[in-house]
Automatic annotation (TrEMBL):
This is DNA repair protein RadC. Belongs to the UPF0758 family. InterPro entries: MPN (IPR037518), RadC_JAB (IPR025657), UPF0758 (IPR001405), UPF0758_CS (IPR020891), UPF0758_N (IPR046778). Pfam families: RadC (PF04002), UPF0758_N (PF20582).
Amino acid sequence: MKQLLDKLTSRGSASLDDTELLTLLLGEGGEQAAARRLAERLLEYYDGALARLGRDPLPRLRMVEGMGQRRAARIAAAAELGRRILQAQAAETTTLVTSDDVIRLFRPELEQLDHEECWAVYLSSSNRIIERQRISQGGVQGTVVDHRLIVKRALELLATQLILVHNHPSGSAEASEPDRMLTARIAQAAALFDIRLLDHIIVARAGSFSFRSAGLL
């Protein structure tokens, strides 16, 4: 392990490739060779997809030969710590300029959910975030959103713009017909009070979908 630790200390953690990082997490004592073989098996099991590795629960991680409870727990803890760091960084965001900004803000929070949630982000005319609020929570197939409550809150906050965000637990980010109908209702209701719906973004494991980028807003 000393060689990897020296590399991390002198060149930083970014200098380590995926196998080396996992080797450090999985290693015990000075058994670098055994830990590296296990790291390679783990990456092979997940076809090199770190995102899948980070999503899987402890029992699935333990299915990899040689993992055991302690090593699997170490990987799960590292993945959760990474998610929490991303959430903390996203929470520091004060302005939104592009759809990518919105996706970076919400992906750490919504991507892993096994149920659907819908959020509204209320903005000033200069794109400063006034408030972000979860407006509904449902099941795997969908959630009920009341467009009147969304507009009511925008008026209370004196927001001039808003963005709608929800997730698709199924993994596909493609907008459904109910998604399109909801977007149209909210845009029309908000426009009555000179409030602009800037975008409706769908976050999923397979990607994301922006109504604005798709020319639907």
